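In keeping with the milestone schedule agreed at the kick-off meeting, the structural modelling team has produced records for the first pair of proteins. Each record is given below as a sequence line and a C-alpha cell line. The laboratory manager (R.T.) confirmed that both were archived under the project's standard naming scheme.
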Amino acid sequence: MKCEKIIFSREKLLKVIKKLKKQKKKIVFTNGCYDILHIGHIKFLKKAKEYGDILLVAINSDSSVKKIKGDKRPIVPQKERAEVLCALEFVDLITVFYEPDPYNIIKDIKPDVLIKGGDWPLQKIIGADIVKKAGGMVKNIKYIKGNSTTEIINKVLKSYS
C-alpha cells in the first residue's frame, strides 16, 4: 500500500528529506490537525503542492490536537487522519508531530516553502523565521470561509440534536 511509503516517523523523514534535497527537489511544508477532511483542506493542499516538487504535511498528534482544540477533539485518531491524507495524490510525505507547534520539525527540515492558510498572517506563521533565514519562501493561501472542521461539527450537532 502507498501509505507505508509516505507516512514517516521524524527520524526516517529526516533521512528521506536529506535524500530529496540532494536530488534538488523543492520541499513544501504545511501542517495542521486535518481532523475531518473537507473541501477547504483539499483546495488548500492542492494549491500548496503547486509551490514545489514535494508536499510534506505534518499533522498534529492526538495529544497536540487536544491541547489546541479541547478535550472533545480530535474526532478522528492521528493514524486514520494520516491514512486519509495518504489517499490524496498531491500529498507526497506525511508525518505526525507531538509538540504543541511545528517549530522543531521546521527547524529540522528547513523546507524551501512554508505554507499556511490565509487565516494565518505571514508574521504569525510558526517557523517563518527559520525558512526565511535559510533562503526559503513563506506563503499563506487564501482562506475559504465556511470550510472548517469546527463549522462542520457544529452543523452536525445542530442538525441532529
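The second protein of the pair:
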Amino acid sequence: MLRRSRMLETEDYAPQRAEMVEKQLRRRGIEDPSVLAAMLAVPRHEFVPQELRTKAYDDMPLPIGGGQTISQPYIVAAMTSALRLQSTDRALEIGTGCGFQAAVLSLLAEEVLTIELRPELASAASQKLTSLGYNNVHVHCGDGTLGLPEFAPFDAILVAAAAPASPEPLLAELAEGGRMIIPIGDADNQDLRLIEKHAGAFSIKILEGCRFVPLVGHHAWQKPPQR
C-alpha cells in the first residue's frame, strides 16, 4: 500500500518535473537527451524534507539538514551533462547529501559509488536510494577528499561541494580518459571546472560560476570556512 501511494504521489508531481526540464534545463542549454530523461525520471520530491516537497521542482537549492543542501536542478543537470557518462562507466560522487545526484547518475552509469562525511546523511540517503530501487548506487561514509582508492579507477568523478583546490587523491583515482567535475574557489564564489585526464596529464576547463557548500576533509577545508 505504501509503495502504491508513493507511485501515485510520484505521478502527481510529473507535471512539475516536466516543467522543470523544459524551463530550467532545456531552455538554459542542457541538450543531452539522456540527462534530460534522467532528470525527468528521478522523483526529486522524494529527496527533500516533507515540508519542502511543494518546492522540490523550484529553480533553487533546498536545505536537507546538517547545514547541507540539495543542489538547484540546473546545476545537477549541468554537472551531469559535463561528465558525458556512458552506460559502462563507473562513477564516484563526493558529497552524497540526500542522494538525488547519485540517483540521476545511476540512470546513466553502470555503477555509482558515493561518499558522505556525515553518518546521518549517509544512512538516510542509503535507505532512500534502496527504497526507490536505485540498486547500482553504493553509499559510503567517510572523508570524500580521500576518494575510494580500493575501488579506483573511476571513469567519472563528481564533487558536489566546493574545494579550495582539486584534491590530489581524486585526481589519482581518475581513469585514463576520465572526467572530474568540481567547484573550486572560496566560501562565497566558485567556478565549476571540468578536469580531464589524457596520457597521464590533466586539462582544465572552466564552465561557469556557482556556489556550493564547502567540501570538508583532509584534502580540502579542515572545517567549514567562515562566510
